[in-house]
Write a structure and sequence with these properties.
It contains six helices and no strands. By secondary structure, the protein is mainly α. The longest helix is centred in the C-terminal third of the chain and has 30 residues. The radius of gyration is 15 Å and the shape is elongated.
Length: 171
Amino acid sequence: MLKTTILAVLFAFGASLANAADAPTDPQIAHIAYTAGQIDVTAADLAIKKSSNDEIVAFARQMAADHQAVNDQALALVTKLGVTPEDNATSQALSQAAADKLAELEKLDGTAFDKAYIDNEVAYHATVNGALSTLLIPSAQNAELKALLETGLTLFTEHQHHAEMVAANFH
């Protein structure tokens, strides 16, 4: 059931990227990136609140801090550039999929929660990293936005590897 839900979230994210447009605009990219980061902050906050596993809590704290820092940099950049992030179908699909996943995670406790949370982190980072490398970075027109996305991709790839290492303890 859980893997089916993860696959559904990934499918919804992938489908929304395909439908958003072949090349999203910089304001759309800024909104997508910020939304993706905020989703992981929210999931991390839930893990910090619900988990009693030290490794999960430490991972979640790192996710919250790192994604909030990148989002703060993104907000500073769009303010500097005078760009208003533009809501779009991809951001909306991400938000809906995340709300569904959070509702599922909130029903779990203990090891079941920890496993579901970390498995979702692996899948979520893989999907977001794929979107960054294949769509968002290549589509970004502004050099500073592109550089911020590239920095994010490097960090989020590290997050994915870290999540995979933590997940290995639950399999």
